[in-house]
User: What shape does this take?
Amino acid sequence: AEKHARTAQELELKFELTERDLQQLRAHPFPPELTIGPAATRVLRSIYFDTDDDRLRAAGISLRVRRVSGKWIQTVKRGTRLKGGISNPLESEAVVAGPQPDLSVIHDPAMHQQINSTVGQAPLVPIFETSVRRTTQRLESPGRGTIELALDNGEILCPRGPQRIVEAELELISGAPGFLLDMGERLLADIPLVLSQTSKAERGYRHARGIDPPLTPQKGEKPAVSAKYTIESAFEKISGAAVDKVLSNWRVVLESDDPEGPHQLRVGLRRLRSALRAFRPTIDGPSLRRIAADARDLARRVGELRDADVMINDICQAAPVAETDDADRAMLLCHLDVHRNRIREEVRAELQQSRWSTLQIELALLTKAARWREEGTGAKKLKKRVTKHGPIALNKAWRGARKYGRRIDALAIEERHAMRKALKTLRYSVEFFMPLYSGKASEKFLKRLKALQDIFGYLNDLAVAERLKALCAEEGRAEQGPSRRHAVDQVLTWHASRADEAWRDAQKRWKNLERTSPFWQ
Assistant: This one.
């Protein structure tokens, strides 16, 4: 063993690259104010160990032994899950005698105890290896800190065959997390980013074990805050959950045709905007305003794909069709599917534009490198209990909905749309702060609010359906036009017969909600 060993909390920004991206990043000029260290290139051979039944992986622990400069370095990482490209594990390193792990040299008591209790008497065996050509450079800004840029090009090796790895990491060596955020934006803003959702260790396990989990839309966690939370910690919890939802479903939209992907991405963006709005003015600033504006613009773009899905799944396929009209409906659905595929490719191309790289980096580091703490938010206000802020946010959202609800019998179409958005904001605010309140009153309020919001959602889908006529007049062969128009008329007629009833139901349910005492007052 070795006298010198260390335990530290890492903060890394990780993203996946293509070979072309790697070359572009290598050629990227560094900001002139940085002191640039020499580039060092090494081939790193790493062997990952676990029990036969993967107990360490199940506990969120990775254990590897790596050959570095003639020595074998054992590294244990606890808390290895990547969230939106951010790696923030507790890491313990020590020199070992050879390419086998030695748990006795783990000098952090808590980590040593956890690994021993996890492994028990089971032998540790090699699961897979990685062989990576890594180029690193230290980037230092006097007075601010140091980061390390690492570019990896290599393979995961196991009996199932190799799998390519092309990645980059920005690790904060010293300084505040805000420095990592600034440098990430400066270095990567003009490169299309794909933030890593899985670590090398997890990718290695999946490849070695033949695990190929489907890329599924993520509904995300419902953040549960309590009365013990400060305003600051509650904001981090609530906004962090929204960010996780956004970044995970960003990847789903890029790689999957599942219609739930764009829906959940748009919901995540809306929840994020609602969280930013709910904590104003206590937490505010130019950076958060910019994130909110970008999230709004992106949600509109993704909404085009969501609308294309709605037209097929919730409008056309929901309406019954007579057997004699099957051919017309099939022709309409085929036309709409062509339209949806075109929109999907446009949205995917948009998501991969470098203009969104900055947003992804800002989201990934939103709670770690909080610029908003430096933009006028008072420290004393942040440390107040969230119970002081919850009623303020809920009252603000409630007023926004009542502004339209009081005139619900006379709302114009545009105002109904505005009320739908206000109800959505109210719902998210209720979900954010409801855990602060006990009893069934909050559950009753939320249940009635959800039912009302569902009706407004259907009415909004009908507004989307009105675009069918214009859409089906585009890019079609002349002889197909009458058949498509007939199918569209059938669909719209069926939904129109339900629209008036739905609106009457919405008016009734609003009045029921208004009679329900706000549980936070």
Q: What stands out?
A: The longest strand covers residues 125-141. Residues 262 and 306 are 6 Å apart (CA to CA).
